[in-house]
Write a structure and sequence with these properties.
The structure holds two protein chains of two kinds. By secondary structure, chain A is mainly α. Helix content of chain A is about 80%, strand content about 0%. Chain B contains six helices and two strands; from the N terminus they run H-H-H-E-E-H-H-H. In chain B, helix 1 packs antiparallel against helix 6. The chains are: A mainly alpha, B mainly alpha.
Chain lengths: ~170, ~160
């Protein structure tokens, strides 16, 4: 069975699992998603008898898809973990963040905006503490993940393509 | 040639935006934009663990990534700027890249086993070395990719 999107789904899911493990995240940082894109291309070639050399458009598409799946799953995992624990790094870091923001030289002159934004942050933190879920926070996480993971996914896709194409020419 | 310069400018601008994001709390400490720091911080949480004791502080404000990641992106950013004026295509790049990764992992291993305590300077320097070589590698790959595309278009 040929399925173009299965490799991206599998490796995107794997990357999201790894990103959710704190120890792996400390070591892996920004290499997990690009590696997932590379592995998606390798899986595509093995599963679907994909042809080498890989086309640029396909590499970018695979990178993008891997990044998007990773973004979706990592946001889902974070939401589930937050829902179970009723806390996360945003809630824990908010007091320090607030004192940092209030110490800004600009804070007194725009106290109105600052207070409004801080009220939003506090309502997000309260929602998480009370219900384990905040729609604004979840949306922010998802949007951030989509932007960053798709960029890194596409970089991984292009680099993976050049790596695999080079290997195929050496093999010949 | 024109394509190549355009690619270099685009990469430089993208890295400039990225570095602005990393230094957001430092650059916008005196601006009302500082209020968006939690959102920008969350954005960079995708690419870095952001452990506080590993982050560099400037004027009392922490950068949004750890020293090693900052080094990586700084190296890439500096070389993206240099690439606007210099032709960067040294030989044996892949070997240097592997060497830079080896040095980086040697540092990670050494402080994790307790040979020495975490040093922001060492972490940054290993990052800068890897980041600069990685940037040159990516730039060369992208340029050769566009060269292949343009020659296949001409055919």
């Amino acid at each position: 069975m040929k399925n173009k999107y299965l490799p991206s789904l599998v490796t995107g899911f794997g990357a999201a699992v790894l990103v959710s493990v704190p120890w792996v995240r400390t070591i892996g940082c920004c290499v997990i998603i690009p590696l997932a894109s590379l592995y998606a291309l390798i899986l595509h070639i093995k599963l679907n008898n994909g042809e080498l050399p890989i086309k640029t458009s396909m590499a970018i598409l695979f990178g993008l898809m891997t990044g998007l799946w990773a973004a979706f799953f990592s946001a889902m995992f974070e939401t589930i973990i937050t829902f179970v624990t009723h806390t996360n790094d945003f809630v824990q870091g908010l007091p320090a963040m607030e004192s940092m923001l209030r110490s800004s030289r600009f804070a007194p002159s725009f106290s109105g905006i600052f207070d409004q934004m801080l009220r939003i942050y506090h309502s997000m933190a309260n929602d998480i503490r009370t219900y384990g879920f905040s729609p604004i926070y979840t949306f922010t996480v998802l949007a951030g993940n989509v932007i960053v993971d798709s960029i890194f996914g596409m970089i991984g896709g292009v680099l993976g393509m050049t790596f695999l194409n080079k290997r195929s020419t050496i093999g010949k | 040639m024109k394509n190549s310069f355009a690619i270099r400018i685009i990469l430089f601008l993208l890295l400039l935006i990225w570095m602005t994001g990393i230094a957001f709390p430092v650059l916008f400490a005196s601006s009302r934009l500082i209020i968006f720091t939690p959102f920008v911080k969350k954005l960079f949480a995708n690419v870095c663990h952001q452990q506080s004791y590993k982050c560099i502080s400037i004027n009392g404000q922490q950068l949004l990534v750890c020293s090693r990641c900052f080094g990586l992106y700084l190296g890439a950013f500096v070389f993206s700027f240099l690439s606007l004026f210099l032709k960067l295509s040294p030989k044996g790049l892949f070997k240097y890249f592997i060497l830079s990764l080896f040095i980086m992992f040697a540092d990670i291993f050494s402080y994790n086993v307790g040979l020495y305590s975490y040093s922001k300077y060492i972490a940054s320097l290993t990052g800068i070395f890897s980041g600069s070589i990685l940037f040159i590698y990516i730039l060369n790959q992208i340029e050769s990719l566009f060269l292949t595309l343009s020659t296949s278009d001409e055919k």
